[in-house]
# Entry
Amino acid sequence: MRPEIVAKQVKAMQAAGLDAMISCSPENFAYLT
# Structure
């Protein structure tokens, strides 16, 4: 996963007060914390 995408998701998670998010697509699975 590209670093800029991860950085945007981390920022959005912090703004929403989330500790973890699970992202998935038919092609792959990525667990972001």
The helical segments are 3-16.
